[in-house]
Amino acid sequence: MVSVLIAPDKFKGSLSADDVALAVERGLLQAAPHARVSRLALADGGEGSVAAACAGRFRREEIVVTGPTGRPVTADVAVHGRTVLIEAAAVCGLGVLPSGRKAPLTATSRGIGQAIRHALATDADTIVLALGGVATTDGGAGLLQSLGAVLAREDGRPIGPGGGALGDLHTVGLADARAALAGVDLILATDVDNPLLGPTGTAAVYGPQKGASADDVRRLDDGLGSFVRRLTAAGVTEAASLAGTPGAGSAGGLGYAGMLLGGRVRPGADYFLTLLGADELLATSDLVVTGEGSLDAQSLAGKLPVALARRARRHGTEVHAVAGRCTLPADRAARHFRSVQALTDLTDQDCATDSALSARLLTQCGRTLAGRWITGCADGKAPADRLALP
User: What is the pTM of this model?
Assistant: First the structure.
């Protein structure tokens, strides 16, 4: 009996990772009903991380925290034993902005700190911050404040919310925030390697996506630079070097705040593959199906499908991919995947935001995969290098 692992990322705007896996499984079992199928919903640290974790061995827990504009938001965290996973996008993401109205200068990360406090109250010893998709560019100032850090103006009052207020910063104290996380392993899961400041920093690269004008970008970058200088003046000797560390600019500078608290940056895709138990399933699989909404040049920089394919190669397992679209040249895709099926090759309709159409097409992909690579070719002949059911 052939053992198949279906382990995709989400198709953003269309289907969750688990929905993608279910649709492919449906088609595959229609064509190869005796195959043994395992599903593993994946995420890389961005939006959908909690959903992917809870499709596996984590359980969902609902919390209410401060959203990016100061209004309360209800968000889910994922819990497994003493590990708590917090998805930044669910707390202060673009998707939770009231009416979708962006607030590039005032959006706050305060809710992330509140979510961390919730995790600490449950006696968590490992806190994973899935960094990506946020509306904030405050360098994690709101997070630090909610954990007890002093970020004050010259008159002693706390600075206001958002990166636009960092220019008012005069006095900094991190002692209480650092003490709150003493003995806790803080993991910063991200596939972003931007530094905090400068032309490749968080304000310059991601600020425009969050509604920042050119003047806003300059103000935000200047404010973040002032933040680093104030920290250095306050005796945080590593402040400048951490600002230049890859990943410091992730999630509007949440990566930087996490580093100040002793957090460890980990590549999101590889970390989540380990966290969600991919290696155990790969070890017993004959064939793997993975995928994401868009297979493109960015995918080759270590996103989930490619990261999974590299691990599968160590187990001697071939990998096939499904995608909403694929812009990779055939020779580059072939370095990682035995086959690639793109939904855009199967329809003239726009399936990017049509979940029902995407699911139907993915089911068709599952049938094709089984017919070509498990039960044999369309003509009934199974090549020697393809798997065949007994």
Answer: 0.87
